[in-house]
Amino acid sequence: MSLVAGLDRAAFVQRFGGIFEHSPWIAEGAFDAGLGPEAATADGLHAALCRVLDAAGEEAKLALLNAHPDLAGKLALAGGLTADSTAEQAGAGLDRLTPDELARFTTLNDSYKARFGFPFIIAVKGLDKTGILAAFETRVENPPAVEFDTALDQVKRIALLRLRAL
C-alpha cells in the first residue's frame, strides 16, 4: 500500500509534517517538488524528503537541529516532548535515569549546546543509555563542521525510522 496515495497537500503535510521534528517545511517542499512512484515506500519518501533538506540553506538546517529536544532534558522531564520523541527516549531508557546519570546528561547537553549551538541529536532506536552517553562523550569533541553534518545524518536516520514505523 502506498504511503502517499490519494493525499492532497494539506493531508500530506498533516501526515508527514512531523517526521522531521517541528519542521513541516520539509514535507511541504517534497510535496511541492512532486512525488513520483518511489514515494510510495518509506525509503522512497525518505529520499524525497531528504532532497528538500539537503537543498536547504545552513540557517534552515540549523533551525531544524534546534527544533530537537535535549536528550533527557527539561522538556522530557516536564512531559513536553512530541509523542515520537517521548517514545524514542523511553525506548532507550532515558525516562529511567538515576540522579547521577541525569546529572551527566545535563552537563553534556549544556557543554554540547555551548560548543555547537544546537542540541545533541542521535537516533536512539536500538541504543541504551550507556551507548548514548558514550556517543555523546565522543561527539562533543568533534570539530563543529563534522558535528553539524553528523547531527543532520542522525536527523535523517530518525526520520527514516519514523517513516518505516508508519
Write a short abstract of this structure.
With 166 residues, the chain is mainly alpha-helical. The chain is 63% helix and 0% strand. It is built from nine helices and no strands.
What does this structure look like?
Helices cover 63% and strands 0% of the residues. It is mostly helical and 166 residues long. The chain has 2 domains: 9-56, no CATH class; 66-159, Orthogonal Bundle (UraD-like). The longest helix has 22 residues, at 144-165. The radius of gyration is 16 Å and the shape is globular.
Percent helix: 55-70%
Structural class: mainly alpha
CATH architecture of the largest domain: Orthogonal Bundle
Coarse morphology? globular
Work out the helix count.
9
Terminal CA distance reads 11 Å
The arrangement of helices and strands along the chain is HHHHHHHHH
**Oligomeric state of the chains present here:** single chain
Query: What is the CATH topology assignment of the largest domain?
Result: UraD-like
SS strand fraction = under 5%
Can you lay out the helices and strands and say which pair or pack?
Elements: H1 9-16, H2 24-33, H3 42-55, H4 58-66, H5 74-77, H6 83-91, H7 99-116, H8 129-139, H9 144-165
Top keywords for this entry?
0% strand, 166 residues, 2 domains, UraD-like, mainly alpha
